[in-house]
Design a protein that fits this description.
The complex is a heterodimer. By secondary structure, chain A is α/β, with parallel strands linked by helices. Helices cover 35% and strands 15% of the residues of chain A. Chain A has two domains: 62 residues, no CATH class; 338 residues, Glycosidases (TIM Barrel, Alpha-Beta Barrel), CATH 3.20.20. The longest helix of chain A has 18 residues. Chain B is 34% helix and 18% strand. In chain B, the strands form three sheets. An eight-stranded mixed sheet of chain B has the order 1-8-4-5-3-2-7-6. Chain B has an eight-stranded parallel beta barrel with strand order 9-10-11-14-15-16-17-18. Classes of the chains: A alpha/beta, B alpha/beta.
Amino acid sequence: MDDIEERDEAYSLSVPSDGSAAILKANSSLGLFRGLTTFSQLWYEYDGTTYNPEAPIEITDWPLYPYRGFMLDTARNYFPVSDIKRQIDAMSWVKINTFHWHVVDSQSFPLEIPGFEQIASKGAYSSTNVYTKSDVEDIINYAAERGIDVIAEIDTPGHTAIIADAYPEHVACPQSTPWATFANEPPAGQLRFAAPETVNFTAELISAAAKLFPSKYFSTGGDEINQECYTQDAQTQQILNSTGQTFTEALSTFTKSSHDALEEQGKTPIVWEEMVLDFNVTTLSNKTIVMVWISSDDVAAVAQKGYRLVHAASDYFYLDCGGGGWVGNNPDGNSWCDPFKTWQKSYTFDITANLTEAESQLVLGGQHLIWTEQTSPHNIDPIVWPRAASSAELFWSGPGLNVSAALPRLHDVAFRMSNRGVKAISLQPLWCALRPGLCDLTA
Amino acid sequence: MARLSAFGSLVFLISVVVLPTGVLSLWPVPRALDTGYTALKLSPYFNFELDVSSPPSDLVQAVEQAKYYLKNDKLGRLVVGRGSSDQSTVDQAQSLSTLTLALTEGAVVESISTEAVKPLGTRSEEYILTIPSDGSAASLTANSTLGLYRGLTTFGQLWYYYDGVSYTIEAPIAITDSPAYPYRGFCLDTARNYYPVSDLLRTLDAMSWVKINTFHWHVTDSQSFPLEVAEYPELATYGAYSPEEVYTAEDVQYIVSYAGARGIDVLLEIDTPGHTAIIGASHPEYIACFDESPWATFANEPPAGQLRLASPEVTNFTANLIGSVAKTLPSSLFSTGGDELNTNCYTQDYITQQELNSTGMTLNDALNVFTQATHSMLISEGKTPVVWEEMVLDWNLTLSNDTVVMVWISSDDAAAVAAKNFRMVHSPSDYFYLDCGAGEWIGDDPNGNSWCDPFKTWSHAYTFDPLANLTEAQYDLVLGGQQLLWSEQSGPQNLDSIVWPRAATSSEIFWSAAQPGGAALNVTEALPRLHDIRYRMVQRGVNAIQLQPQWCALRPDACDLYA
């Protein structure tokens, strides 16, 4: 949980072929943990014997990028603590070091925040579909033991319809219809960011939530802000008119308040790209980290503004794409980010595309993401694994590796995950998995 | 004071009579359905009274199963509060203690399994279910034990649960139900990846809950041959992925009887002459272009390899293989496949070319001889052959008039099959393929895509019209339809979530075909019921996928496009 740039995950591993002791060395216990992970991937089993066919093995290893993440949305559908821990296990097996927890959203608010318990009590799907303070501690410790930092996100000011169930005064266009006028997906509802009471409320909420998470990073979100929602909100218009603020000025004030609260706790804020690219929020500290999601094409624009960034491109890393449209009464609707992003597609992501040498330094790393409108514990493992391991390799090992060489190793990881209780999906017929290369396009 | 309080209690009474906002969540929706607004509890002493003399053991078991589901479903109604707002009415409701099950006068008592495998068009699946609102006995009558089974399935979908009480809020209920089409199936490919028997049994359970009556088991293909055939043990010995990844003869019989007890006929498919590369592992001399490279020249997917259909020895082998398997199965249907024949494979096969040259046959002629051999073997065993559409649309073959054709390439091809006067089963990739939309699985192709992208949502499938482009005279040729899972990218890990609840869509298209009262099926009306069956499947141990955020599942229509 150190600052991203201060972590030391490097290790060296030496396994002689003569049966003498293998040696794992690192500069930190985290490095030793990474080395142990590698060591455990070396061994196969046949007829009661555990073995490796490729000794001697000499490994010197360290990650190219300090941020290798996985994001889970636990608001569109709920995930029990045990499911989250199982994801954390799988993450640790491929050296993913950040769990970006998109914990709340418009559809539900499962997080119990001290001082704001009402929101979960009214906004969680049920009294058992919650994350208590001790659940959060449990998950954080579980992750920490596996070298994983938990970065929570309370997405604001959009994506907050559910807060109206407990604090209607702070939410504009709550469940307004038709929802498509006021939001990207139902239900509509966004925080009244121009109202001073809401600014304070949000800063206190973020502050209280951030206290639950020891990470040095916390996301306040900021994506998909619907302007019509505010245009039609009398209260918001009245405030903007009477103070003479523009939309951007009010949003900047709102953002600064939450971000100051985070900085007071020694935390660095993280935001989605719109805050920088679409709304030109003027109050972002230059330490702010930006997650680029709409398209890989937007990376250069963010880098040009000098912000450190995390790759989260929907055209490469969104695990939910390709599951068809989920909105009702729309039989010919499709997934907005069709097609499905295969492991191979993700694997060919160009980390420094369109970036100058200097701008490339701003790239902290990247992550796969699962938005859960159509996902729940019942399919979480196969929709995430082993695909999310492809970004794990991209950002640890670096680009330039080819998909042909990678596939057999990815099959291997998937089978090992399966043996360890994570239901990784079958990437190909087993016939192919047992015959490296034979099911390639031109084989 | 007294008048004021009388008025007060009247107001209280009115505010308590809440009209149900949820729908009666049956799937597939019955053909004729009448419901009321009265709450009715299920008595803790509820029992089924089976008024059938010498009831077959599978009917007795079906009743036990029904009891189990009643006791364990514990499904909260899909509304905010999950039924807490029903409680004041439910508290005061009558209790239902009995459902009597009886056959109509003169009905012949046979086991469900026997009924389930009767030839298409001769089965009786209809039933009448009546549930009074006053707590007096409910009754289920049918013309067969299979009809009783169907009615029991419906009965099990009526009950919600809150705080220890099972109840419905829509009594009295009167249902008269029967399927619009005799064939409602689900096809599973167990060759590209293997599924343990337990996965098949769980899938059969889920099928039975939505009245799917045919398990089309695509058991072998080019990548593996898991089926143990007594007369040809080498096929599985060399062709299965491992000695454990097989279906023994006992497994197959168990699956057939498990299915039969749930009113499901097992239609086995041994796809020939294409899709047979793996036979080369034990009989390399039977296979043309065996594992040849580049595979794309010789097959639709790797590995390449097709039966040498021009060879009399291979033809005999295939006919005997099919015959020996088919005779162990009670179904009257058996599929010999016949899709995606690659002609390059034969053009470049010296042995095939030699055989064609020496007999003066064309490839089509040879295929005709080959097919007639396997089909006459089936017919001699009293089976009706089933084939994929290419056999009638792409090749000029003499097939028996009874042959059933599965239309898969596109829904557009149904008319052409009907024009040739074959009975058909709708299996179109553009509506019913469950595997579409998961990206390209072939390696070294990072920008490749699923050949049948996009993903076929339940609502897209739901708009399928079984009678599109057919003349009225051809309507009788439509036996029904099915959804299908090809398993190149599927296995036990994701079986439930990729199949359910989507595969229930076709069960309603081909059982209900219309809303009760005759209106066309409508996705807006259907979604809350599909959510319901999905949640019930989860309660029963099937990991059906979540169709929408739970917020939406609890607020019917609120997440519709124009909501």
